[in-house]
Write a sequence for this structure.
């Protein structure tokens, strides 16, 4: 087409020249060539550059395209109109900032291209066509801007997890961020986790605590914006930890009516912890708390069977029993002096290690379970009326209400 038109123009020029010569040489010097009306598509060269030449499918990023127009001699074309368009199969959301530009003083013009939305398919193709006098001969130039990911192939699912050998109930973190799509990070993908029948989750990362021990085949399914998907699987071996061991309580002694601090100890399985301590004191009281340290006051002296039950973070429990010996803090003591069938008793040697005051002395002269007399005096006499060997019992009581007893043999000659 270009060559044919050029031939026609040559013939026409020859005819014009011949006609001019027939009119006379004098008029030839006064002839002027017709002026060009603007840049012609036959002499226009377009070059296009895009920065950047890749856009993410986020619907907001932009690429700036620069067009440079030059004539046949390589000089910038000023005022050159250029029409712009996207290809018919442009990815959804891709758009041009304008449909036409005009070159400036340096022969360049710029416009922007908006990124397609997530889930779109294909790259962006922009066409630029100079506007001249013959649309049929206009040379269109194109430029391509890649939309990432390209979504022409399925993503590659991959994941890691930590810890590598978890226990039952221990939180495991799964990370699918190493999955890729079209060779780049799968930022617009969806992630679905199946924990081998022990539950499911979504998201590029997930946390899960397995409810029982055993081997679980964990499956990650990654789907990209185009609907393609792939899976990755790994086996997670979950250990069932042992119940807490090494239960004990210290100290094993206490004093009646005095608050005693007790400390329980127990060793949970590795990576686990004790969450509760239950103390059954053996005197009708009990306490449950999450601290191993506790105070308890026994009201009377004696031996009490303490039951300690601990529970770990998996709900596993262990129990132990321990005897707590509770002293009264009192020392009951007396002497006996015999004259005839009469015995004189003196409990003045009785004492208290707790700074309490002994307020009552009770006497069971025959040790038959019935106290025959009592009072605040530590001395008393009793006539047995006949000879023989008896056992006498003393019970002292202090101002705390704590008691202590002792016995002695009494011989009446």
């Amino acid at each position: 087409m270009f060559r044919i038109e050029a031939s026609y123009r040559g013939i026409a020029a020859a005819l014009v020249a011949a006609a001019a010569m027939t009119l006379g040489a004098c008029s030839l010097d006064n002839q002027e060539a017709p002026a060009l009306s603007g840049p012609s598509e036959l002499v226009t060269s377009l070059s296009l550059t895009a920065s950047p030449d890749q856009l993410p499918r986020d619907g907001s990023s932009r690429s700036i395209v620069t067009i440079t127009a030059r004539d046949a001699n390589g000089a910038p074309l000023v005022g050159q109109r250029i029409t712009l368009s996207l290809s018919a199969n442009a990815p959804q959301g891709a758009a041009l900032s304008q449909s036409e530009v005009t070159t400036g003083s340096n022969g360049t013009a710029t416009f922007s291209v908006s990124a397609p939305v997530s889930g779109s398919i294909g790259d962006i193709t922009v066409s630029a066509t100079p506007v001249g006098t013959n649309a049929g001969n206009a040379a269109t130039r194109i430029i391509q801007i890649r939309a990432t990911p390209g979504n022409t192939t399925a993503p590659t699912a991959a994941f890691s997890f930590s810890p590598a050998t978890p226990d039952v109930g221990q939180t495991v973190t799964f990370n699918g961020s190493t999955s890729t799509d079209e060779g780049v990070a799968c930022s617009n993908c969806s992630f679905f986790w199946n924990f081998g029948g022990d539950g499911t989750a979504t998201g590029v990362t997930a946390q899960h605590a397995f409810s029982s021990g055993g081997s679980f085949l964990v499956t990650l399914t990654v789907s990209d914006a185009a609907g393609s998907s792939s899976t990755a699987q790994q086996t997670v071996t979950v250990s069932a930890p042992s119940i807490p061991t090494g239960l004990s309580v210290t100290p094993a002694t206490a004093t009646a009516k005095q608050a005693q601090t007790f400390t329980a100890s127990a060793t949970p399985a590795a990576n686990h912890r004790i969450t509760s301590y239950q103390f059954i004191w053996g005197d009708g009281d009990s306490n449950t708390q999450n601290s191993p340290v506790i105070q308890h006051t026994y009201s009377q002296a004696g031996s009490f069977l303490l039951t300690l039950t601990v529970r770990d973070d998996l709900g596993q429990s262990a129990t132990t029993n321990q005897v707590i010996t509770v002293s009264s803090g009192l020392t009951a003591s007396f002497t006996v002096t015999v004259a005839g069938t009469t015995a004189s008793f003196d409990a003045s040697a009785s004492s208290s290690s707790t700074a309490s005051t002994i307020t009552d002395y009770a006497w069971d002269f025959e040790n038959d379970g019935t106290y025959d007399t009592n009072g605040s005096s530590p001395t008393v006499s009793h006539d047995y009326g006949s000879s023989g060997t008896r056992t006498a019992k003393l019970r002292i009581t202090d101002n705390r209400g704590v008691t202590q007893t002792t016995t002695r043999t009494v011989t009446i000659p």
User: Anything to note?
Assistant: The longest strand covers residues 302-312.
